[in-house]
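Example record

Each entry pairs one chain with its bound ligand, NAI.
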Amino acid sequence: MMEFTQNIRGNVALGINPLGCKQEVLNQINYVKSKGTYEGPKKVLIIGASSSYGLATRISLAFGTGADTIGVSYEKGPKNEKNLGTAGWYNNIAFRETAEDEGLIAKNFVQDAFSHESKQEVIDYIKNEFGGKVDLVVYSLASGRRTDPDTGETYTSSIKAIGEPVVGPNINMQNQSYYTETLDPATDQEIANTVKVMGGEDWELWMKALKEADVLTDGVLTTNYSYLGTELNHDYYGGGTLGLAKADCDEKTENINALLADINGKAQIVVATAVTTKASSVIPFFPVYCIGLYKVMAEKGTHETPIMHQDRIYREMIYGNKPEYDEVGRLRPDNWELDSDTQAKTKELILKLTEENFASDLTAYDVFYKEFSNLSGFMVDGYVEKDVTIEDLKALHY
Ligand code: NAI
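Structure tokens for the complex follow.
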């Protein structure tokens, strides 16, 4: 019997359990089904569809509104017993199989979304096999690097402070430690590169290509997930390189709105809540904020996982009657996180943390660790061990 071992380096998961990943996808599908159906889009393209926010969006739309979906992601399949590939690979498969069983189209493209070829392949598929047009485009990509499709130059993002260094506590899930970390300020080049990778340029390129190819419906919507945070994480997030990349997405929204005006389309920034994902676990200090925040939010009954958050966004806000926008038109489902009492209590709690108590009942370390483990198919509710061979895994197709 193949053994699946959870192998964590720092806050990066190396080991995966493919069967656990499948169960985790099924759990999310069941969550959406338990909420019933809602009226929404019918043909959806999700860029960054294989994990966390993008996957949760896809699950809510497919199983909540009966949408056909195209998912683009960059994942790796199994090579041998030591290298089983990435969790997103198996998430894509579990999603497609379940959606197809219900008569839905669930097409996966596993390739570099930043390239022109990738965009063209998706466009050809929409034209030839997906009914010709999409009515929603979700941009949920998170990446550490991007190759510019015109110049071929590869840019790497840096999660850094701006101006002054930031010193603060962080946690390491590999050895369950609490330590002090210093985040250096970024150089101008690092700032520019981070905006190039995580800013809105590629989102705009996608929308331009889709519009030019005439594969967007009249009234098309495109969403992009942002994060603003609060004073508790401003120095390393909102006020750091990532904050500037997110501000660039705000700017690109205007361009995309102008581009889509003649087809009555709209670009919408969705400021999403802090959740445990592959991308967020490696943001310096952020896990400390999360273990404090989640504790407070769980006590108030407002803590959400990606599936809970995305399902609420689309079901109740975008396609429901409870949207809340800020003064510049961004959708604000993060209002539960930003609630002033929640923030005050989180601050109070974080200030009490020490090496001795950070993983105790005082915080939601256990919740953060479980959610982190779930991303790689470990500690998944309802998981049942099964005998599986590497050949079985290799035979699975996305
Ligand atoms: P994630 O790391 O779980 O997922 C990223 C997705 O992008 C995956 O499907 C991956 O395969 C795909 N991807 C990466 N590089 C690619 C490439 N070159 N070509 C094709 N696909 C590629 O990330 P997460 O956390 O779900 O982030 C998604 C978005 O949500 C990001 O914009 C992030 O800033 C935003 N967000 C995240 C929050 C959080 O707390 N995690 C909070 C608010 C917003």
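Residues 48-54, 72-75, 88, 112-114, 140-143, 225-227, 272, 274-275, 277-280 surround NAI (CB under 6 Å).
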